[in-house]
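Quick illustration, no need to memorize.
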Amino acid sequence: MNESPVENTLRDNLQQVRERIAAAAAQYGRPADDITLVGVTKYVDADVAAALARAGCHHLGESRPQELWHKASSIENPDIVWHQVGHLQRNKVARTLEYAAVIHSVDSLRLTRAIDRMAGEKNMTTRILLEVNVSGESAKQGFDADELRNDVGEINGLTHIQLAGLMCMAGLGLDEGQTREQFASLRMLRDELAGQLPDASHFGELSMGMSGDFEWAIAEGATIVRIGSILFEGLL
């Protein structure tokens, strides 16, 4: 079956992004297979998101819960793993749990408790990443490091979540050195917190790096990169 021009463009873009991920991983002595690419589909409709999955990007992310609900319920593809990567309000947790395999943006103890409680009501366990405000910008969501040091023990003890790691967004307008310093701070915080946990075997993920800085994130240990706009070049 011949692919449409949209699918051809997506396949080419996806290949280029994967080549850049592999090159960055090789440069810093890491296996490319250690890095999961999450294609963030907030820029496109469900048809294009489905075409991206057909092109081979099976981890898809959404920033807005309502968009995740819509796309996950309308795209019939059992290979897709959905990620909630944007801010999540507590009143949207229950429905989001129906679709998201991983929630990256858990930014408070109250939200963590709500996810645990609602996952328990559904008799399920949900993988979460704790969002850290590494830039210190007031407009950004997330724990600060000291807050997380105090709360991680309680969070890890909750019974209906799996604490999988940390997530961040670097500050805007920074150069490579400044951006990498923020990504490195997340890696060091993960390693520090792992030392506080009785079992840190599941606590290894670092979700950091987007279209403009994912290679710098890979240099500092990213295990998940969240790529949006460059996957859809030529379509937007």
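The chain has one domain: 5-232.
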